Every structure is written in C-alpha cells, then in structure tokens.
Amino acid sequence: MTARTRPATEADEPFLRAVFAHSRDADFAGLAADAALLATILDQQYRAQRAAHGAHHPAARREVIVEGDAPVGSIEVDRDGAGWTVLDFAVLREHRGRGIGTQVLSQLLGRAAEAAAAVDLQVLPWNPAARLYERLGFVVVGGDETRLRLRRDPASVTPA
Is there a contact between 132 and 121 (Cβ–Cβ < 8 Å)? Predict the structure, then answer.
C-alpha cells in the first residue's frame, strides 16, 4: 500500500498528541513514573514543542501520514525557500519497517529537489531512523553527542 500525507486539521490534534507521546515512550522506558505523571510530562513537552515551532517556524506545515485511510504518523516541515527543515517526523511503531517512512521522505525529497531546496533535520545518534536518513542521502553537517544535524542537498544522488 502507498503512504502519503495530508494536511493536519484541528480534528487531528488528539492523534498528533498520541503520535508525539508514542514516539517518545522509549525515552521514558526506564523511568519508574506512574502513568499520570508520565502523561503530564509528555503533555508539557508537547506544548513546549508546539510553542517553539510556532515561534521559530511559523510557516511550518503539519501533515498526517496515512496508509490507505488509516493515519499512521506525522511530519512537520518548514519549507523556507532554498532550505527546508523537517521539524518532526514519526511513524507509529506498529507501522514501522514497512517502507512508510522511506515513501514519505522520498516524496518530500522529490518535491525539495524540484524546488532546488536542501533538506535539514536533526536526529538522536542512536535513533534507528538515522540509518534511513543515511540511505536517503542525508549527511552529517554538525551536531554533538546528543543530536546530529543532517542535510540532503538537492544535487545529491537520487534516493534508493
């Protein structure tokens, strides 16, 4: 089945919050916190992310990743002229490993190449998605031990 994106709407907010929490649950796996505390922490992080993205990337577009009619993830991209920035990208765990992320990012990279735009993103060095980004032609352009900054220039080799 082919994955695609559609603009996020107000009605998608509960799903987007769930994707945010789901994509970060591994970060809290070792935390012996009760469910209510964890929900509070994730809600605070979600609100902080939304505020930061709104302040620093007001033109960014949030989209829901769908496979068939089912929402399976989300992506947020700031398409600012010659440089596009992927602010957030997540596929629900039960839908990973089936090529959905590759399809969605390949579509995005195709549109970026048509616009002659480089695509930037950040990833945790231990995140398995880092391998996907490397396969798609992203290269490390900076970062530190906690975050890698990656870029794919429009002149890069076409993704596999």
Answer: no
Torsion sign, CA atoms 31, 33, 36, 41:
negative
Residue 135 forms part of a structural domain: yes
Domain presence at residue 123: yes
* pLDDT-based confidence at residue 1 (cuts at 50, 70, 90): confident
Long-range pairs, 53-61, Cβ under 8 A, ≥24: 53/87, 53/88, 57/85, 57/87, 60/85, 60/87, 61/7
CATH of the domain at 58: 3.40.630.30
Range of 9's domain? 3-152
Instruction: Using pLDDT thresholds of 50, 70 and 90, give the confidence band for residue 80.
Output: confident
For the chain, give the mean pLDDT.
Answer: 90
How many separate domains does the chain show? 1
pLDDT one-digit tens code per residue, 114-149:
999 999 999 998 888 999 999 999 999 999 988 999
Kindly state whether residue 95 falls inside one of the protein's structural domains: yes
Q: Is residue 106 part of a domain?
A: yes
Strand partners, 70: 67
3-state secondary structure of 90: strand
